[in-house]
Design a protein that fits this description.
The complex is a heterotrimer of chains A (131), B (336) and C (109). Chain A is α+β, with helices and mostly antiparallel strands and 131 residues long. Chain A is 40% helix and 31% strand. In chain A, a hairpin with a 3-residue loop joins strand 4 and strand 5. The relative contact order of chain B is 0.11. Chain B contains nine helices and twelve strands. With 109 residues, chain C is α/β, with parallel strands linked by helices. Chain C has one domain: Transcription Regulator spoIIAA (2-Layer Sandwich). Helix content of chain C is 38%, strand content 32%. The chains are: A alpha+beta (131), B alpha+beta (336), C alpha/beta (109). At the B-C interface, loops of B face helix 2, helix 3 and helix 4 of C. Chain B: This is Phosphoserine phosphatase. Chain B: One of its GO terms (molecular function) is phosphatase activity. Chain B: InterPro entries: Bact_Sigma-Reg, KaiA/RbsU_helical_domain_sf, PPM-type-like_dom_sf, PPM-type_phosphatase-like_dom, PSer_Pase_RsbU_N. Chain B: It comes from Pseudobacillus wudalianchiensis.
Chain lengths: 131, 336, 109
């Protein structure tokens, strides 16, 4: 199974969502969690499309300590985020009508890590565990 | 049963009852249900899922073709769910900020604290009430070795935290004025230099500085753009403006301040105030200066502190207990 | 609590008409709108305050800021149409002595 979707235009966001939904369904996530996972993927893919121009989103099954989950890895070589602390602040991105923003994504999943270097790009890993 | 299962069961019961006969009771229970779900942080999209599951469980007759429509509803509610969670988080942050400001306000009280001097010939009263938690008004008393009583009353533009921070700076510049320098015009000139150098260009301070000489009973004063005070003449029972004009502190480095003086007889009263007193606004507009004088007149026979408290109470009532600006009133009454 | 600010530029001057209340809530908007004009070289700003119903010390702060910025850049500030109440505010604060107020000379200085 091809587990990555290249993001270069808005339709790729839909493809990424579809991939995420399929994997989530296969792993046995309920409908609400499926919607959360796809929303998170949507947000991450949208960020790539809007700010980096291109990048990719990968979705895989992950296992740790007897738990099964789904991991989303979003990667781009865009401009990066200048102030991560601010980008992770509530009310910062949403006020500009940019959607849920990174704090929203963080809330939708169980684990969230972000690494961004201005001028080099951004790497985000988000995991949702099966309950 | 897990909490979520309990909620699912409960929802199913309510739905079943309502589907049967559309009773108001079920609607009331729904209202209670929603309050409980908010309390337990159940987000909107989960409610949709509850609804869908309950419909299926109850085997209520409806077109199967309708089912996918819930996916759309759920997806649409996702953003609301996120906004809801963000809101909850922001509320926590707001509470943290609020308590932090409370601590700062207490600290300000301690920092800016001043003691009303105890002199035989004067009865002194003072009241200062912030419009918000932190005050941009400030007053300060100093008593020198010769027995002269100096009083400063100041107002920083704006209110709240920026004004309070600025006030702390003024307080420390005043504390570090050279020993024995209590000539009002000199004090204002020194402070003006400090403010001019250290404060943002759009920030300024008004200050009235007065010195009561307890030997010759003369009040010397200068003003840096501050609201003029009143002088109550005991003999004529009349109020006069304590006229003094001078540029705001912090506008121009080389500002000179003119010093005025006023002889004070037994029974005469000096009233100093911030613009929160004269600019007191009610539903119908500003209060007239005469209204203010009227209130002072009404309580003039009382002790200085009582006059200050009573006048404040009157104006507070007049404004519907909502101060728009910080309020400070100082009263010096010569009693012998 | 509202304010409308209308800026008209002619060759000789920048005319600013303000209507409404200038207080802690509206002052930032006023500052943001007018401040850029003070940073140009030798700009002559005329502010018409005849429709201002209320102004508090925060509003004064804006004008002090504009005045200082204009002075630094060789420009001038003229305030016209002040009500008696506003006039008193500028008098008490000593600003009337250093600013050009209510002189009603149209067409720049």
């Amino acid at each position: 199974m091809d587990s990555c979707v290249k993001i270069t235009n808005e339709w790729d966001i839909v493809a990424a969502r579809q991939l995420g939904r399929n994997v989530a369904k296969d792993l046995g996530f309920g409908t609400v969690d499926q919607a959360r996972i796809t929303t998170a993927i949507s947000e991450l893919a949208r960020n790539i499309y809007l700010y980096a121009g291109q990048g990719q989103v990968c979705i895989e099954k992950t296992e740790a300590a007897g738990k099964v989950g789904l991991i989303i890895i979003s990667e781009d070589q865009g401009p990066g985020i200048q102030d991560l602390r601010k980008a992770m602040e509530d009310g910062f991105s949403t006020s500009g009508g940019l959607g849920a923003g990174l704090p929203g994504v963080k809330r939708l999943v169980d684990e969230f890590t972000i690494d961004s270097t201005p001028g080099e790009g951004t790497l985000i890993r988000a995991i949702k565990w099966l309950r | 049963m897990e909490f979520r299962e309990v909620m699912q069961e409960k929802y199913k019961e309510i739905l079943e009852s309502y589907m049967k006969d559309q009773n108001e009771q079920a609607l009331y229970l729904s209202q209670k249900f929603s309050r409980k779900s908010i309390e337990h942080k159940i987000s909107p999209e989960e409610i949709i899922s509850l609804h869908k599951t309950a419909l299926l469980d109850l085997g209520i007759e409806f077109s199967e073709a309708m089912l996918p429509s819930f996916d759309i509803l759920l997806e649409v509610m996702m953003a609301y769910g996120l906004a809801y969670r963000e809101h909850q988080n922001l509320r926590t942050i707001q509470q943290e900020l609020k308590s932090e400001i409370e601590v700062a306000a207490n600290m300000q009280q301690t920092l800016l604290g001043t003691q009303v001097p105890d002199v035989d010939c004067l009865d002194i009263g003072a009241i200062s009430v912030p419009a918000r938690q932190m005050s941009g008004d400030y007053y300060h008393f100093v008593q020198d070795e010769q027995g002269a009583v100096s009083v400063a009353i100041a107002d920083v533009i704006g209110k709240g935290i920026p004004a309070a921070l600025c006030m702390s700076m003024i307080k420390y510049s005043m504390d570090s004025l050279p020993e024995g320098q209590y000539e009002p015009s000199q004090v204002l000139e020194s402070l003006n230099r400090v403010v001019e150098q250290n404060v943002d260009p759009t920030m300024f301070i008004t200050m009235f500085y007065g010195m009561y000489n307890t030997v010759n009973h003369t009040f010397y004063y200068s003003s840096a753009g501050h609201e003029p005070g009143f002088f109550y003449d005991h003999k004529t029972k009349d109020f006069k403006e304590l006229y003094a004009k001078g540029l705001l502190l912090g506008v121009s480095k080389k500002t000179k301040y003119r010093q005025f003086e006023k002889k004070v007889e037994v029974g005469d009263i000096i009233l100093l105030m911030s613009d929160g007193v004269t600019e007191c606004r009610t539903e119908e507009g500003f209060i007239e200066v005469d209204t203010l004088k009227g209130y002072i007149q009404k309580y003039i026979h009382l002790e200085a502190q009582e006059i200050a408290d009573k006048v404040y109470k009157e104006l507070e009532f007049l404004q519907g207990f909502q101060l728009r600006d910080d309020f400070t009133l100082i009263i010096l009454k010569r009693i012998k | 609590m509202n304010i409308t600010i209308d800026v008209k530029e002619t060759e000789l001057q920048t005319k600013v008409r303000i209507a409404g209340e200038i207080d802690a809530y509206t002052a930032p908007k006023l500052r943001e709108t007018v401040f850029p004009y003070t940073e140009r070289e030798t700009s002559n700003i005329v502010v018409d305050l005849s429709e201002v119903s209320y102004m508090d010390s925060t509003g004064l702060g804006v004008f002090v800021g504009l005045f200082k910025s204009l002075n630094a850049n060789g420009g001038t500030l003229q305030l016209i149409g002040l009500s008696e109440r506003l006039r008193r505010l500028f008098d008490i604060t000593g600003l009337a002595d250093i600013m050009n107020i209510n002189s009603e000379v149209e067409g720049g200085v």
